[in-house]
Amino acid sequence: MSLGSKGRGRRFTVARTVREMVARVIYAGDWPARALDRWGRARVETVRHQIAAGRAARPPLRIGFISDLHVGPLTPTRLLEAAFARLAAEAPDVLVLGGDYVFLEATAAKADLIARLVAGVPAATKVAVLGNHDLWTDHALIEAALERGGARVLVNRTLRLPPPHDDVALVGLDDPWTGEPDPDRAFAEAAGAAVRIAVVHAPEGYPFVRDRGAALMLCGHTHGGQIAAPQGPVVVHGHLGRRWPAGLYHVDGLPLFVSRGIGAVEIPLRLYAPPDVGIFTIA
User: Fold this and answer.
1) Domain 14-282 is of which CATH architecture?
2) Is 16 within 8 Å of 1 (Cβ atoms)?
3) Distance separating alpha carbons of residues 17 and 11, to the nearest angstrom
4) What is the separation of C-alpha 268 from the centre of its chain, rounded to a whole number of angstroms?
5) Low-confidence stretches of the chain (pLDDT beneath 70)
6) DSSP SS3 for 135
7) What is the C-alpha separation between 42 and 76, in angstroms, rounded?
8) Are 238 and 47 in contact (CB under 8 A)?
9) pTM, two decimal places
């Protein structure tokens, strides 16, 4: 295995290389995911929030948000299917996917599963951003899978919604950890939109969204710590991730939501950080 990222992602360190090599050996055959599929619980929380965006003359917009699937040796397929079944039952107007679709390398089998899961949600519009784990592997394979599922991948781009929600623009930024966010380009494409909703993989994307008139920022990455105590996460990577580990925060007038995501990395365990999907009503 070569040192460095297989994709365009930065910060793929020697330590990261060693950890992934060890994980491939320890979790060979995806045995943790298989065991959890058989004996584990497919527990997913649905988190709901109302966001006031001054859209009184428009019908409410319902957004479903899911992040950090981490398809791979530590995430049972049954859990992923349960999460997407929750979203499908909600039938949101828009499905937003927040990145980190795989753990370890992207493969054709993982891509097929991602495409199937995304295609199963009956949303008129689907968009996705990429996360650090995606950019460390064959991200083109992941992007193609998302597109097969009906999602448009936004890398520093904006998508304006069709009527009756054509006052809303979805602004997708590149991963702030390993990619190259370009907020000037992305938000320029949102000019004229009364409501701007920013999507970026991690809370570290906040400086790129701040003061740009966003009505909401959606992100994931933290897993809520993945391993937490009853009073909160034990370890969360990143300065802003530690400040905003999971849930809805109001930061200088900007509602910022951090999902705990669905899957796991490093170890096949979550404690006091259950997987979640978000449903947002923008009115």
Assistant:
1) 4-Layer Sandwich (3.60)
2) no
3) 11
4) 19
5) 1-4
6) helix
7) 8
8) no
9) 0.96
In the prediction, which pLDDT does 238 show?
A: 87
Task: Give the tens place of pLDDT for each residue, 169-189.
Answer: 999 999 999 999 999 999 999
Kind and range of the H or E run holding 117:
helix 108-119
Structure-block tokens of residue 253: 């007038």
pLDDT the model gives residue 29? 95
pLDDT reported for residue 1: 43
Q: Quick one: 247 exposed, middle or buried, by C-beta within 10 A (0-12, 13-18, 19+)? A: middle
pLDDT of residue 106: 97
- Kindly state the helix (H) or strand (E) to which residue 89 belongs, with its residue range: helix 77-90
First to last CA, the chain: 50
Tokens 């597109």 map to which residue?
147
Name the residue type at position 158.
T
SS3 188: helix
Q: What is the DSSP string of 216-265?
A: EEEE--SGGGSBEETTEES--SSHHHHHS-SEEEEETTEEEEE---S--S
Nearest to 178 by CA among 237, 118, 227: 237
Q: Is 276 exposed, middle or buried (0-12, 13-18, 19+ CB in 10 A)?
A: buried
pLDDT of residue 3: 54
